[in-house]
Design a protein that fits this description.
The chain is built from four helices and eight strands. The model has no long low-confidence stretch (mean pLDDT 93). The chain has a single domain, classed as Aminopeptidase. With 166 residues, it is α+β, with helices and mostly antiparallel strands. Strands 1, 2, 3, 4, 5, 6, 7 and 8 form an eight-stranded mixed β-sheet that branches. Helix 1 packs antiparallel against helix 2.
Length: 166
């Protein structure tokens, strides 16, 4: 299967919302509002990275990264997610391609690091680790991970963009 990863274009957005909705529809730990979060991030102009996976002219996957604060301070750290792939395209490496490309894009933007809430065994493959220095409240042990691009001494509570809390 030939998959192309590219920056999301305005014409892709309706398909992106549908992909996110379908990808998270049966996930028990989801609040099922990931599509609304992405719409709010886009409206605020705060999608630092937004990529789609295309199979021909059909969007089959999406990933976003948006700014986070650490210890109440703005910094060059980003939160990865959501990562969404249509159910019928899952387990084919598309999510991996989206994650790898988004991390490369963040590094090109001179980001200091990235955080994610997700399955530890999956995200550790990309270099994400748990950290005692930065944390996200109310996350099960091990499910909040970070990836440092530039050595720094950031510490404290991570807060995602306001779009995540509406």
């Amino acid at each position: 299967m030939d998959i192309t990863i590219k920056t999301t274009e305005p014409k892709d957005f309706d398909q992106v919302i549908e992909v996110i909705s379908l990808a998270f529809k049966t996930i028990p730990y989801s609040n099922h509002d990931e599509d609304e979060i992405v719409a709010r991030l886009a409206a605020a102009g705060d999608l630092a990275v937004d990529l789609v996976a295309m199979a021909g002219d059909v969007v089959v996957g999406f990933i976003a990264a948006s700014p986070v604060t650490i210890g109440g301070e703005r910094c060059d750290w980003y939160g990865l997610g959501p990562v969404a792939v249509l159910p019928e395209y899952q387990r084919q490496g598309i999510g991996q391609q989206l994650i790898e490309k988004s991390l490369k894009d963040l590094i090109m933007m001179h980001a200091e690091g990235c955080v994610v809430v997700g399955e530890p065994a999956y995200y550790q493959r990309f270099g994400f680790k748990t950290s005692a220095m930065i944390y996200y409240p109310s996350t099960p042990d091990g499910y909040f991970l970070s990836l440092v691009f530039k050595q720094n001494n950031k510490r404290g509570v991570v807060r995602y963009h306001d779009a995540f809390y509406q």
